[in-house]
Amino acid sequence: MDEKWLDKQLANYPMPDRVKEEIKAELMKYDITKKKAREIIERCYSDYLRNLMEPGEAAGIVAAQSIGEPGTQMTMRTFHYAGVAEINVTLGLPRLIEILDVRKTPSTPIMTIKLEGEYAKDRKLAREVASRIEATYVSDIGDISVDIYKLQIILIPDERAMKRKQISREDLIKKLEKSLKVEVEDEGDRLVINIKEPSYRKLLQTVEKMKSQVIKGIKEIKRVIIRKEGDEYVLYTEGSNLKKVMRIKGVDYRRTVTNNILEIAEVLGIEAARNAIIKEALDTLEEQGLNVDVRHIMLVADMMTSDGQVKQVGRHGVAGEKISVLSRAAFEVTVNHLLEAAVRGEVDNLAGVTENVIVGQAIKLGTGDVELVSRIGVKSHGDGS
Amino acid sequence: MAPKRVKSIKFQVFSPKEIRKMSVAKIITPDTYDDDGYPIEMGLMDQRLGVIDPGLRCKTCGGKIGECPGHFGHVELVAPVIHVGYAKLIAKLLNSTCSNCGRILLSDKKRDEFIEEIRKRKEVNADFEDVVKEAFSTASGVKECPHCGEPHVEIKFEKPTFYYENNHRLTPIDVRERLEKIPDEDLRAFGIEPESARPEWMVLTVLPVPPVNTRPSITLESGQRSEDDLTHKLVDIIRINQRFQENKEAGAPQLIIEDLWELLQYHVTTYLDNEVSGVPPARHRSGRPLKTLSQRLKGKEGRFRGSLSGKRVNFSARTVISPDPNLSIGEVGVPIEIAKELTVPVYVNEHNLEEVREYILREEHPKANYVIRSDGKRVKVTENNREELIEKLEPGWIVERQLKDGDIVLFNRQPSLHRMSIMAHEVRVLPYKTFRLNPAVCPPYNADFDGDEMNLHVPQSLEAQAEAKILMSVQEHILSPRFGGPIIGGIHDHITGLYLLTRRGNRFTRSEVMELIKTIDVDKLPEPAIEEDGKKYWTGKQVFSLILPDGLNMKFKAEICENCDVCKEENCDRDAYVVIKDGELIHGTIDEKAIGAFKGLIIDQIVRKYGAYTARIFLDNATKLAIRAIMHFGFSFGIDDEDIPDDALNQIIDVIREAEDDVTNLVMAFRRGELDPLPGRTIEETLELRIMQSLGRARDRAGKIAGGYLGLDNSAVIMAVSGARGSMLNLTQMAACVGQQSVRGERIKRGYTDRTLPHFRRGELGAEARGFVKSSYKNGLDPLEFFFHAVGGREGLVDTAVRTSQSGYLQRRLINALQDLKLEYDGTVRDTRGVVVQFKYGDDGIDPRKSYGGKAVDVKRIIEEVLEEG
Cβ–Cβ of A93/B810 closer than 8 Å? Predict the structure, then answer.
């Protein structure tokens, strides 16, 4: 099949690119006449036209039902991440609710970090990136003890652990001095911190602060797991901080994702957030073996993001900000909506579904959206008279 | 005439003037009825407020019960009181305006900026809540009035209705005076529409009294009258109001006046909302909190969700459902008793006069129950007036005829989670008392026959009937809009039946074939595939082909396919490669993948190629044939179907013992500290994981052994592999070993300190001690195993209970958020404001129901079709 000719032919049809590409890919496999090819394209086009959604269709209700109905069949448990046995991930119904609620942080934040060039190929280099990301606490690289009599904090560094985490002694001292605002004395096998102020409270406070002090890595990320996927090493993290991780050397920021939708919206923008919602929701449903068309999820995601910020599906978002007073009152917090509407002098134009059900009229969707007027006595139609 | 439509509803706050204007009666006495049971004039049951007693007429409009809409009265409050609902707003207003001149505490320029922003937002129907919030917070932060220079003193608001200025309490009169001073134009900056709501109206001076029919009293059996909660509350208000008045006129001390004022405030507050925090709820004599205005509107059973969004209907029926494979999927069997009760209106005209007369004359089932005359009077058709009615019958009457075969009805099962939960069926009036339906329509309703009940509704107008038939009938819903595949299809025995029928090696004599297809409309038999000793035999595949439409071509792998590395296609050992050519099943066995609900590829193909009608006929025939086939072969399942030879049992015991030893070794290694942790896991976690793995493997191996001995002819195996019911896991559990019981994905570890039961030592980690059930269901569980099994089973029950409520709420939120979205003629999806949510529905405008499992066009099929046409 002549590719150029095919492209030219396809250009005449207003079909989605995805369909065109498939037609092209399929047709390239065969050696058929142009006449046949033309017929096939024509048939595809008429099929496409036939499969279009009809005007007036309640696209939203169908989408809501298609996502809500399988909810009853989902499990509630936290399972291990597909493939990564080491990390627990919220899945099933709780995760779906979490996505649609747009929680500040998901109950199990996780990042999938892909690496660049050499880093993706070499386990040692990948390890290096991992240690730059994983939060290392002072207690991870040494034993902390307190000498109450001398008002000292003593840290005995574990050289092996420090080497593994690639932290030099100088770095450690510098970091401690800077963050705790103390002076650290290096006594060879141990580091000693003297408390200037003679106060036990201060001493204990400093110890507490020291224990939770991140020496290296990103605070939010508690654990990093390295896995080989295909021919490259991939990092999975418990905890998420997209902004910081994207800046780390060796990380391929183009292919690095988090499951925290708000974070994506903040760092990468609203359209990325929309895609993230679609991906997360679809993955959650698919993991449960539930088959839901993407278009439904797309509509929900578009509704959530259509005004530039991620709004939740619920009282403090999409459903609560509708213009119709009656519709809001029928959803939640009935009385407050009514009182407020009266003060604002709001007018309900009865355009939506609930409003018209309430007043007992036909709703403006589907067959209720069209009106037919029969002209009695006029026999011919379409003559423009 | 087109029905009138309500175009819009405006919400406003009542002004005292308006309340007085609409009032038909000033209420002054707290009493309701006098000793004779007659309503007292100027009392709460004043006859001018409407009627609730049958026979009486309203003194205002002269209407009888049902005609009179009821009329408001009013109570003049002696002193103003705060409206609780607006208490907070009043506080904000007091804090953002000057106490001296009443102006907003913002310069005119700043004020106009806010007003302009709000106006702009309103124009595009956007939310302006944040602007209002900002206006309030900037104004209340100002130190001194920019208009008159008066210093701004913060007014403290104390819930529910008290205001303090410099620790000095402001009376509602003070509050009202201040609010009065706020100019109209300043209010707009706070989002308040001055024509709709002057702030001083939020301090009540007059109270509207709702008409009696909103608070009907009920007469108890004893003849005693019991008043509505609202009436009780109004009585309280009027009583205190009266006492207040008397005291005030008598010049009572300030303290008493204040007490009474506060009491009046309390009663008005609880009248409006009996659940205000900080206010003890007003109670009935019995101690039950009263249901006042807010409570009537709120919540699931409140006016909005309970009465306005969900309405009650006539012409409906509900009873238990049961299966009947001889019905079409588009039919519903209706008990004769129900059919006699439900009616369909027939509009009499010149053309159907005779037909209608027939209904009125009939004494048997499809007869007329009622007639509605031209003047709107409803007359019951009885033996006595039958002749008389026939004589008077004329076009314009409506005759209510009993439900009969062929009528269109809506059939529904709750929870109505998707649109397939309500579908239109054709009526088949049948004896007995249950609704009957073809089991193939169970999946969309999610129904079974363990006592489920379903509802039936009879559409009354011709438009409704037409719409139901064209848009809602079962055949139009074979494909689900959720994923673009069939949701209606064979279940359970349908799959088993057709699987048995179309397996290799079946042959049927002519009479056997006739027996199989006797309820199916087939007029010609194909040439017999086998002729032996002069006798003709047909294969099961040939019989099944009889119900396939001509011209159907398909190739796919069946459910029984084992996904071999290299597919042998037509030569498959298990006959799992289905080939259909021109409506003829050439190879392969029919199972769930072919005709099952959710999966049925043949159904899918037929709907797309031949349309919904043909698909319905196919499903009707398939279900009938399947039932005949399963009856021909006979199919049963009992406890001895899980019998496995001693040999197998011993093998299973060995496997399990091995696993137990493995666990013991692991535990010992763990105790010695020799266990290497998995990356990122603690040693304890590692041990648990390894034990779980080991035991899981053991169960699977046991299952394999049992499955091997049971063989492919075992009923349970047939059901499991064909996808009719159950899984190999269920079989394993029945025949070989139930396996590890778990709670939250872990082995059971709760119970006593460091042990699950007192039968074990503290800290014991062995298989048995942590809920491994090595027995099979058939052999029976020992007491300890039984206990652990119950522990694991409980989790499932809790899970289901929690899940239903959570997913129900999720569904409600989703529906509420998306219900107004509509696909417009330009291909965009918009909400009621006209805001575009999607420029092209789903990026390609394709209807998911018509899509091929999500794809817009089935390119491969089209190419194949075109090429085959030569």
Answer: yes
